[in-house]
Specification:
Number of strands: 11
Order of helices and strands: HHHEEEEEEHEHEHHHEEEHHHHH
Number of domains: 1
Oligomer: single chain
Distance between the termini: 16 Å
Strand order of the largest sheet: 1-9-10-11-8-7-2-3-4
Number of helices: 13
Length: about 400
Amino acid sequence: MALNFQQVLDKIKQIGMGARARQESLDVLREHARQLLDSWADKTAELRDKVERARQADSNIRCALPLDERLDASTPEPDPSTDEGQNPVTLLAADGSQILPDRHAALQYSLVNVGAIAMQLGSGQSPEVFTDSSLLFADELYTETGMLTKEAIEQRRDIAERRKLLELAPDYPAPLLALTDGPVELWGAKNGGEDDYRKNLEIHKSVLSQLQAKNVTVAGYVDKPGADLVVRTLEIGEFSTDDETKNIRKQHSLRGVTDRWLFSFLPAGSRSAVFGLQSSSRVHYTGDLALHFFYLNVGYTKHPSLARVEFPKWVAEDADKLNLLHAALLQQCRVMGARPYPYILHRAHEIAVVKFEEKRQVEQMLELELRRAGGEVEEGSNKQSAKDLPGKTRTK
């Protein structure tokens, strides 16, 4: 037996014994958070000043930046009517998957696969699907600082997704909405090497700017967000001394409360106010690229489901683009029924996923070609060989 179930069971019982007390404590914090949201709702300028003072004390703080709308604003689903003669909305979505180099495998390689889909709403035309597959081998697996890390490959995947959207955009009439799963902000930074990250970031920003030049509404969709961006701002609002502001990382008076719960009051189909994003990356995303977001209830009256939608400033400041984004996401989520998620992103994911059988086929093709050309093919590690024995069912 690999798992000591008795130890696990003992811990589970301890968790259960404390469940009621934890829930009561969380309920108190939630009520306080809701009260703070109400009290700060129409004081956005004052709260924004507090966030700015906190940013000066610690530029790495991550929170929401209040703008002009009330904090508790609720904007209903836009009127679906459109101007007569307007082209149907075209949705573009891209998603990616990757195979990472594995030192235990016989072959060292990486693969980034991007799936994309284009769909013209209400046109009666079938969606078009696209796939780009990039295989990295030998020197391509290395940078000046060593082998590509998991973070660096994931950055390349994210950039490849938006490059595909940029490539497709000229082929379709406006209005255009381009979606990816996850935030617009480029992640995986510091562990991937600062120099590599900065290079990838410049490429990423260039692609975003080119999408703006093509008048594309760009957004990232975060399903079941776990962030506390607005809650963190409410915590900052409670600061009354300079010491609290200076020691902001230790101040978590609402720990455990999430934005997803805070905005659960939004009626079905409604979005929250638009917020700016304060984070360590704010210095990189400037001007029209400055990152913004809203929360959107894509669920139903008896079963709310909150998503965070992230987009650049050029979308945030355009009411038509905001309405297009709002309405299109609701339409796409409703296609999926009781488990709302944008259908077009779901399809992009299905296209992008590399199945195990496809992975094995790539490896066999690569091995055969290397042997035919007189190249070297190593054996897999002994550890991997043991894991691959018949009957082995370990997860790692």
